[in-house]
Amino acid sequence: MPKKIDHEERKVKILRTALAVFAREGYRDTNLSLIAEECGLSRPTIYQYFKDKDEIFYYAVKLVTGRMFQTYALVAWDENYGDCIQRIEYICNNIIDEAVENEAALQSLMDVMLQSKRDHVDFSRVIMKRTIKLTILFKRLLNAGVKGGQIRDCDVNKVSNHIFTLLEAFCFQIAFLGSFSAEESKDFVATYLNAYRLSSSERH
User: Fold this and answer.
1) Distance of CA 42 to CAs 46, 79, 80, Å?
2) Contacts for 152 with CB less than 8 Å, ≥ 6 apart
3) Is 143 exposed, middle or buried (0-12, 13-18, 19+ CB in 10 A)?
4) How much is the pLDDT for 126?
5) Distance between CA atoms of 170 and 69, rounded to whole angstroms?
6) Does some domain include residue 142?
7) In this structure, is residue 48 part of a structural domain?
8) Domain containing 171 — which CATH number?
9) How much is the pLDDT for 1?
10) Is the CB of residue 193 less than 8 Å from the CB of residue 142?
11) How many Cα atoms sit within 13 Å of 110 on the Cβ side?
């Protein structure tokens, strides 16, 4: 009886192998034949999952961001996670934890982005399209906090962009610096967010 193939597991295996090959060989010099060889699969088998290497990269970004956003969208409006600032902090802490846990995959993804940039292939629009949801979520939570008297009046767009930039910087440190401290980064996020929290005496 032929062994049943877990197609999703195989797709993720192809993805991880491809990211490693991209980082080693460069995005421009990598093709599906080389990825197939590294995976121990035939090229027609690879084509069953991905039509080209661009699609592999898009899938990598989608895989990294898709599951997280589904979770965060639920957390954002669940009062069991605390007030608006606590919910933003929870989301930020979770992103840090996920990045630390998936350090190797994150490093491969960033290596590919840096290599592709040198090869004049710019994936920034792909990343922006996939991550804009997170910035929008922060804006909505900040607005809700301001209206609800939890957060002091502020430039919501600027603050949400600051939070997102912090998370980007943390992910870069996790991928490329050996001195990253998750706890110190979480403390920094908490300190930053608490600066916008209205004290009980300031609330009307």
Assistant:
1) 7, 50, 49
2) 146, 196, 197, 198, 202
3) middle
4) 66
5) 18
6) yes
7) no
8) 1.10.357.10
9) 47
10) no
11) 17
- Which residues are within 8 A (CB) of 189 and not within 5 positions of it... i.e. 6 or more apart? 89, 92, 93, 96, 163, 166
| Both structure tokens of 47 | 């084509």
Tokens, residue 110: 């960033």
Place of tokens 């906090």: 145
The residue type at 114: L
- pLDDT at position 112 is 72
pLDDT along the chain (204 residues), means of 10: 69 84 78 89 89 82 73 89 94 90 74 71 68 89 94 94 92 82 94 89 61
Placement of tokens 């898709």 in the chain? 66
Is residue 184 included in any domain, yes or no? yes
Chain-centre distance for alpha carbon 46:
25
Whether residue 148 contacts residue 79, with contact meaning beta carbons closer than 8 Å, is answered with: no
Whether 17 contacts 38, CB under 8 Å: yes
